[in-house]
Design goal:
Two copies of one chain form a homodimer. The first copy, chain A, has 226 residues and is an alpha+beta fold. Chain A has one domain: Electron Transport, Fmn-binding Protein, Chain A (Pnp Oxidase, Chain A, Roll), CATH 2.30.110.10. In chain A, 17% of the residues lie in helices and 34% in strands. In chain A, the strands form two sheets. In chain A, strands 1, 2, 3, 6, 7, 10, 11 and 13 form an eight-stranded antiparallel beta sheet that branches. In chain A, strands 4-5-9-8 form a four-stranded antiparallel beta sheet. In chain A, 44% of the residues are buried. Chains A and B meet through strand 2, strand 3, strand 6, strand 7 and helix 3 of A and strand 2, strand 3, strand 6, strand 7 and helix 3 of B. Strand 12 of chain A pairs antiparallel with strand 11 of chain B.
Amino acid sequence: MNHNPLSSTLPDTDRTRHRRLRDQGSLNRAELDAILNAGFTCHLGVVVDGHPMVVPTVYGNDGRNLYVHGSVASRSLVAAPEATVCVTVTHIDGLVLARSVFEHGVNYRSAMIYGVPRLVTDPEEKLEGLRCLTEQAAPSQWDHARRPNHKELAATTLLALSLEEASVKIRTGGPDDGDGPDAALGIWAGVLPLVSTWGEPEADPLLPADIEVPGHIGARGGTRLG
Amino acid sequence: MNHNPLSSTLPDTDRTRHRRLRDQGSLNRAELDAILNAGFTCHLGVVVDGHPMVVPTVYGNDGRNLYVHGSVASRSLVAAPEATVCVTVTHIDGLVLARSVFEHGVNYRSAMIYGVPRLVTDPEEKLEGLRCLTEQAAPSQWDHARRPNHKELAATTLLALSLEEASVKIRTGGPDDGDGPDAALGIWAGVLPLVSTWGEPEADPLLPADIEVPGHIGARGGTRLG
């Protein structure tokens, strides 16, 4: 495990360089961290038999590695440790409604991480990676729910992907045609925001009625994701 | 363009076959349509220089083809017409909080579409595809905003991906450990729903104050996506 601190700027490699929409690209590592910390699901891209496969899955982020586990896509994870993967985390923040269709767009924050993932085999590191992954989606559940036993740990594939090679793209703000010729058209323009919100917890029907919602879960109801 | 009706069941090919979590897989075309109709952004996976690249982008769905355009990722789209791509559309519906960490999961609806996309060059079809793509994200904007002119059309790359080869995965409901030994632990279990909601429209600061929000945009505020 590499314990050197990561650079505060993201590397400018051939894969991460922003060839288009350069103004939306960012080499700021703090923005990468913010995007990763704001979510818990990603799209994992792998090459299987020469074709791409994009699988939604959950992830954990400890600021150095992104962890994905093996319960969702055995084909992608079996192929992954031998080859480069691309993990993309995206938050959609709103629709940009311009005067012209051509200038319509989306406000978003997105991070793409490239690398050859490492299969985590050390039991202590595996447990710590699974803790990270669990806490990313469900903070405080690691100390609340029953932790994985040896059999469950053995049945889980955990991959660690270094955050060293990453690319961030962010778009914010209104449409770009407010000072062009289309502004004279008298067409409404602006942003329609999109927000992800946690609802109120719904108890498992099999749960005894006297088991109350714990505070760390109940407090999330009505709060915003991302 | 193939005008034969699509089969009501999805094909069971080597790529789309559900090898794991078979109970979450679906071969129902109506479910594919519902997932695609419920969203407007996807993750487009392509192979570039032998490695995968996963790019978030908007799409249109006309029930036969999925359309993606060229304003977001020229590298991925330049590579795409020669090779198989994978487009994944995912809706995250909630966190499944079980008694054990191992049984934690996510409620979601996801569609993966495989195919070699076709570059749309016919001007009429290109306009229709862009209409489809615009209306998917912003219903009624095609008739409200200024449509693309010849120059803008020429600057846009449009790809059509047939919906013939697709795979759907859906998970709903509560945790699975309510009738196992962990039920005796007395740990709360259930689902924390996640909902995407449109906010109230925010006018472009450059917009004259007398231009009111049109009904088709204003009506979306507070409504649910997906």
